[in-house]
Each structure stands twice: as C-alpha cells, then as structure tokens.
Description:
Elements: E1 3-4, E2 53-58, H1 64-77, E3 80-85, E4 91-93, E5 99-101, E6 104-105, H2 106-109, E7 116-119, H3 125-130, H4 133-144, E8 148-152, H5 155-160, H6 176-179, E9 190-193, E10 196-199, H7 205-217, H8 219-228
Parallel strand pairs: 1-5, 2-3, 2-7, 3-6, 7-8, 8-10
Antiparallel strand pairs: 4-5, 9-10
Amino acid sequence: RQMVSVGNSGLLAAFALVGRSSAFLSHSSLRHTPRSFLSVHQLRMSSSDTPKRVLVPIGDGSEEIETTCLTDTLTRFGAQVVVASVMPDLLCTMSRGIKVMADVSIADAAEEDWDLVALPGGMPGAEHLRDSEALVELLKRQNGEGKLYGAVCASPAVVLGSHGLAPEGITSYPAPVFREALTNPVDDLVVVKGNMITSQGPGTSLKFALTLGEKLFGKEKADEIASQMLVER
C-alpha cells in the first residue's frame, strides 16, 4: 500500500493515488520538518505574509482523489493547505485503501481561523466528518462569519445536510440516497451559493478545487492555474 503525505503538496497529482502499489511516496515538507510532527500552531506566519489558509479534514474512508485534488490544486494557487484528521490517529485509511498522514488533529485545527474549509467525500469518510463535533462547530463558525466552506461527493448531503449547513439548490454525488437528503438539488458539476461551494465527485474535483481557488484568489489566477494543469474551464 502507498503512504502519501498530501497536506502541503503541489507535487502529487491526483492520478498518483490510483492503485495500490507498494511505492512509498513523499515530498519535501514545510521547513523540512516531518509532517507528522508539525502542529497547526507551527504553521502560523506573521500577519504581513500570511497566505490564504485552507483546511481539508479527512477520516477513514475519505475519497483520496478528491482529497488530493483539493490539496494539490489549492497549493498551486499559493494557499497554505493543512490536512486534519477527525480520527483518533493522524494516519487515515482512505476509501480505496491508500493511507494518508494528516498534518494535525481536528481538535487542534478547530482552534484556528481558516479562509476556507473544504470537505472531500467518500464513504464512510463523510460519516466520520459528520460525527466530528469539533469539525461541525468549525463549519458553523465558518458559515456564521461568512467565510468560505465547501464539500464534494457525499459530504454535501451527509455532513452539511445533517447539520443545517446545506441551503436549497446545491449539488452532490448523483445517487438517490444523497439527493434525497437535500432540498431541490441540482445537476451542475459545481455550484456556488454565497460563501458555500459544492460539487459532485472524483471526476469533478479539479473544477471544484479551481472554483474554490477562484473564490480565494480571483478569476485571473484561477485561469492561470487551470491553463498550467491543462484543465478547460
């Protein structure tokens, strides 16, 4: 199985996660410090040079393509991306068996301020996110302060829909069990509703991440990153 550290990586593409080879993938971590020893407090910078801060929560069963699309793409924009585990351990086993080491626990991450909180889907990963009290409180705070939050695949219904954070007319993975949990869901690949963005699944995750990046950094930067990644917008 692969061991993949994704929290600050602009080097790993989503397709690097496909399969279950025995390769051990890693990358240079922030300040050349092993990622498992980084705390969210160590990631702080001075107010004058602080980049946009993005939190990607994961749990056992989270979808690895969606997770990597978020972390990789938003890192390319220049965001400081941190992966937080909602499980007792930082090491999470994703929906296809790939293991991902988170940077911090959700308890530590929830004490911080974030420009964006973006949820991957996957089952039962979305259920683990839904059941995390620290994450739910963070999402409610994010919404109340008008800050960005987003979800893809199962998470719009399972996480946001379960906690009154899913407005009418959003999207999710197009399975009846998820659509029935939403009010008037739509079939668009990516939907922006104020400070909330939703998308459908692994195949729409690059466009989802680019839309999140556009909300944080502007259309010109999003078009630039999309061009570099050979993604049509």
